[in-house]
Amino acid sequence: MGRKWNNIKEKKAAKDANTSRVYSKFALEIYVAAKQGEPDPESNMALKFVLERAKTYNVPKNIIDRAIDKAKGGGEESYDELRYEGFGPNGSMIIVDALTNNVNRTASEVRAAFGKNGGNMGVSGSVSYMFDNTAVFGIEGKTEDDIMEILMEADLDARDIFEEEESVIIYAEPDQFHAIQAALKEAGITEFTVAELTMLAQNEVEIPEDSIAQFEKLIDALEDLEDVQRVYHNVDLGE
Fold first, then answer.
1. 3-state helix, strand and coil shares in percent for the chain, rounded to the nearest 5
2. Which of 17, 75, 116, 199 is the most buried (most CB within 10 A)?
């Protein structure tokens, strides 16, 4: 059930050599979370979550502070959270999450990205039923037994705990995210290679080698869209 989380993040880091793209997406997500509730992560769980995730991507403090200050200023911008579902080459399944202030523009751009790269849009629910909303953590310097003991002492359950290269990966129910993170921090674990909620495919699939380049081009086209925050899929691309 491994998703090779560290390899995925390394590939993203390599692709995002110009990290301003990643930072701008986080800035928007932080702004929206702060504007929807209190601009204080201790009383705003959505904001606390995105800040924890931003930390694993090394988003600079000044970008975080600027986004929160903008929300405190009561900016007039209003954003909608949207989810699109579709299919890539060889029936691969893709979920696209977006934040937008222009729904028509975003829908048009997502549809075009699918259509120009061997995919097609699906209706709501056509793909998401094959994915599970999952909390995932990556921890270095500990063993699987170490993590299991920490969670047992805190009376917390995980869906799965396994070792991947030099990290231990935890899959858990999404509503356990903050409790598990608090237990890990209480045990002295303050740095995570991954700490986020994701849509995890129930079953990964392999696609023919001659379709991989087209699939990756489709994913890149979707991720490059300004309004798109996250893209999930069910393809095992190996290492």
1. 45, 25, 30
2. 199
Indicate the helix (H) or strand (E) that contains 149.
helix 144-153
Asked whether residue 116 falls in the same domain as residue 140, the answer is no
- From the list 204, 199, 213, 209, the residue with the least C-alpha distance to 235 is 204
Residues 170/147, Cβ–Cβ less than 8 Å: yes
Is 148 part of a structural domain of the chain?
A: yes
Please state whether the predicted TM-score (pTM) of the whole model is above 0.85. yes
Could you tell me the strand order of the sheet in which 80-87 lies?
A: 120-122, 80-87, 93-100, 228-233
Q: Does any domain span residue 228?
A: yes
Q: Are 168 and 189 in contact (CB under 8 A)?
A: no
Long-range contacts of 105-109 (CB under 8 A, 24+ apart): 105/227, 106/82, 106/225, 106/227, 106/228, 107/82, 109/225, 109/227
The pLDDT tens digits of the residues spanning 4-51 come to 555 555 545 544 545 778 899 999 999 999 988 888 888 898 898 899
End-to-end CA distance of the chain: 15
- Distance (Å, whole) CA 237 – CA 239: 6
Question: Which two three-digit tokens encode residue 238?
Answer: 């190996």
- 169 close to 194: Cβ distance less than 8 angstroms: yes
Alpha carbon distance 56, 66 (integer Å): 19
Report the C-alpha gap between 187 and 60 in whole angstroms.
26
Q: What is the CATH number of the domain that holds 109?
A: 3.30.70.980
